[in-house]
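lol ok so funny story. i was supposed to be doing the assay writeup but got distracted and ended up predicting the structure for this chain instead. priorities right. anyway since i did it might as well share w the group, maybe its usefull for someone
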Amino acid sequence: MKAQKASTPARIAALAAAFALVVLTAAVAVRLAGRRQAGPASAAVAPLTGSPVGLKERVKHDEYLGGALRTSACGDRAFQEPDGRNRLEGSVEVVNYGPAGESLSRLTADRIVFDKDALHFAISGLVRVEAGGAVLEGEAFDYDRAQGTLRTGSGGRFSTSGLAGQAPEMSYSEGADEVRLSGGFRVDMAAGDGTGRALVLSGDSLVYERRRRRGRVDGRAALEGQGFRGVSAAASFNASRDGSTLESAAFEGAARVVVNGNGPAGEESGEVGADRVDVSFPGDRSGLMMTASGRSRLFLRSGADRTVTVLAPTALLEFVRVDGRWTWSASGGVRAEVREGSRLDRTLEGEEIGYDPANGIRVSGGPGRPAVADSAEARVEAPAISVASEGGLRSSGGVAGVLKRGDGGLKAGFFSSREDVTFSCDRLEIRPGVPAFLLTGNVTARQGGQALRAGEVEIAGDTGRMSGAGGVAVTLTEAAEGQAQARTIELGGQEMAYSPGQMTLTLTSNATVRLPEAGLEAGRVSAVLSREAGNIESLSAAAGVTVSKGRYAGRGEAAFYEAAAGRIALTGSPVLTDAAGGSIRGDKLTFDLADDKILVENEGQGRSTTVIKS
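and the output, tada:
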């Protein structure tokens, strides 16, 4: 975007300087005696001579320099008032010309009144000053030459090709090179690229120091540009070195900046609120940089139904206007709420938080304080947590958390939905949509006496399906009927799968089972769990099964354990061996866990049963 020719206050100051020049020219026009000068006079003007009225009709005064007209002033009449002041009135016009005859400045008004020393001027009646392509208009202006001040209390308007504004009260100080607008002002600045986009500055009052290129707005301060609007109790700003643009602005006192996105439903729009918001404008006006400090609150819409609200002491934001995309960060202890429509999806907490469209949200913890992501399904703690724009979550560096109980919680495999499940792992991924949790690296999950350890665990939260890999160990603690102590059963294998429909927990590849009374090894083990307590009701094993009890070991191709009966049946040409090397074969081996007996059964001719005390 091309730079504007001059910032708003700078143009007002230039108009004021032209104003001073033309009113002095008017003073020269009404003098009847004194030294004639080339160009506008700046010395004291001699009083009118003649009668007390000294009326002169059709006053016209021209001054030349090097044969070229440089100044022209005229009016219907000029005279001296009884108090000694001089008056030029009736179609007053004062024009200053350049060397080539071009008009440099022009003033028109109904009257100009000034004192005998030409120090104080009162210009009134449809006042209009034109200079450098700019126009200043109003009903009445006062110019104090001694103090170097120009002011109006009856309303003024100013405009250029790219600027228009107004204020009930206006003043300019030559010595301080300072512009003041008060009584409620508004300034519209058109962009210099021909797009018609504008920057609007308004408020109760404005003070601009042109030498320092800085200004301040007090009372209902507002700055509005393409796609954004900032409001606060007060605001300050800095103009560029050449005065062509605003470099920065600071909103103070209940500051709020709203930025609109490009999407049809307001995607990538946002609102920033804080005690103070500092805004900087790139030279090409392609975006905004904002820093919010003091009770910062960010409200950002990243999708049609997705919003993020961030609370933090300090926040830094960048808005790229070309594609309407946000990047932002916040620090100093932050909390963020991510919503899908009216539903709270999750909250995020940490020391720092940031967002960019490509990677989504990332929250980091601080010393002794992890980053936290909390939702209806789970609470996650880790050194850093990332939330993708589509809703997925990733964390690493040592993760701990809770899979929550209740109807709104996650169906976490064989764990009960009536209690929380605590977990830890190296890395965690929560996939978007229907939640699916993938825990990898040193995975541990616990619920009361139930525990799961694995290299990797995946939980499909919609159905409660669970799978594990990388070496799985499951511990189930069961309340034993009529006994004070609970029973602990351990299952293991390289891989695990839990089917909630059949309540079946299956372990494969070097599967093991450790009962208080016996042990079992097989290629595959499937346990059926009770729906209420999650206890093992039955268990089946296949592929190279070994059952160990005391000094005996039975080997076969299949085994079945029935918890209610307290028995393990081994089939598939089973062989029973003892520690001394003795063996016995049968069609079926039954391990009676309660009575410490082993039954060897043969089903052929001469059917027999051998009972061995284990």
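Residues 1-6, 32-52 have pLDDT under 50 and may be disordered. The two ends are 92 Å apart (CA to CA).
back to the writeup now i swear
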